[in-house]
């Protein structure tokens, strides 16, 4: 079915989501519902099951598969392979050239895909589109912060030298461009930033919609995860990979890594203050 906004015909799109056995069933249910009930609904929905799921998660998946059988497709991976490999399997299965990425515990607002596909239609040379993201407390539903990112491509390109210029929870991109650069790398953490940096390095054009269109869950453990040694190692490793590729200079590599090491070393209260004061707006 053709969907038009003014004089523009919107492109059809696939939704790409990956889930594994540690996801909470209620979060997956809310996430799936938020994407399948968009004001401009998807033509294709690819859910990658990264390893065997729990019985509760399988029940959720089966219920959506039965209700949306004409568009809902499952890619089953027998063993957990990690986000990067799971996304690559999902990208292969997506039927549309425009892919809207969705995490299995986030919530998309009803007009997210309408606004992203409208921008793709208005500016057909764009390859990546993101949005602002609202972080909310998963227990109280209280808004904690809004993560803003640069809007226009020039600012995105500059910002990308040190940080991800797109909120990973909000990204939509061209399948053809993603396949041209080889998809996601086989990284266990921070794979989204490496993927975006490689897209931009190879000439992808991007833009962000300066509006909150995705809600991102956080809880009392989020800060601990962000300042953990595992996350810190992954943070530094990805920036080193990007630096070695020639995309960034040494200062671009060193400065964010020094900040991350500081967040790892300093107390939890300080880390929380830095995130809310400087890394979120």
TrEMBL record:
Xref: SUPFAM superfamilies:
Nucleotide-diphospho-sugar transferases
Pfam families, per the entry: Glycos_transf_2 (PF00535)
Sorted keywords for this record are: Glycosyltransferase, Transferase
Q: What is its EC number?
A: 2.4.-.-, 2.-.-.-
| Transmembrane parts of this sequence | none
The molecular function terms in GO held by this entry are: glycosyltransferase activity
Which Gene3D superfamilies does the protein's record reference?
A: Spore Coat Polysaccharide Biosynthesis Protein SpsA, Chain A
Protein name per the record: Glycosyltransferase
Species name: Ruminococcus bicirculans (ex Wegman et al. 2014)
């Amino acid at each position: 079915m053709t969907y038009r906004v003014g004089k523009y015909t919107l492109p059809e799109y696939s939704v790409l989501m990956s889930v594994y056995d540690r996801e909470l069933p209620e979060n997956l249910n809310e996430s799936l519902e938020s994407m399948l009930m968009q004001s401009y609904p998807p033509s294709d929905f690819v859910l990658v099951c990264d390893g065997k799921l729990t019985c509760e998660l399988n029940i959720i998946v089966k219920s959506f598969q039965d209700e949306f059988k004409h568009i809902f497709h499952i890619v089953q991976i027998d063993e957990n392979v990690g986000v990067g490999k799971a996304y690559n399997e999902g990208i292969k299965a997506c039927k549309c050239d425009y892919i809207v990425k969705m995490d299995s515990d986030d919530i998309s607002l009803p007009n997210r895909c309408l606004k992203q596909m409208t921008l793709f239609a208005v500016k057909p040379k764009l390859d990546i589109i993101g949005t602002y993201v609202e972080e909310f407390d998963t227990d109280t539903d209280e808004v904690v912060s809004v993560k803003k990112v640069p809007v226009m491509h020039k600012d995105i390109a500059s910002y990308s030298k040190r940080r991800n210029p797109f909120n990973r929870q909000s990204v939509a991109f061209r399948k053809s461009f993603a396949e041209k650069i080889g998809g996601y790398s086989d990284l266990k953490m921070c794979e989204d930033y490496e993927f975006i940096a490689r897209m931009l390095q190879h000439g992808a054009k991007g833009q962000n919609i300066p509006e909150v269109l995705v809600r991102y869950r956080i809880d009392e453990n989020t800060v601990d995860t962000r300042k953990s040694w595992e996350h810190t190692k992954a943070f530094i490793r990805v920036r080193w990979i990007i630096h070695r590729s020639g995309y960034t200079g040494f200062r671009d590599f060193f400065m964010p890594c020094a900040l991350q090491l500081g967040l790892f070393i300093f107390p939890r209260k300080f880390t929380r203050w830095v995130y809310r004061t400087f890394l979120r707006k």
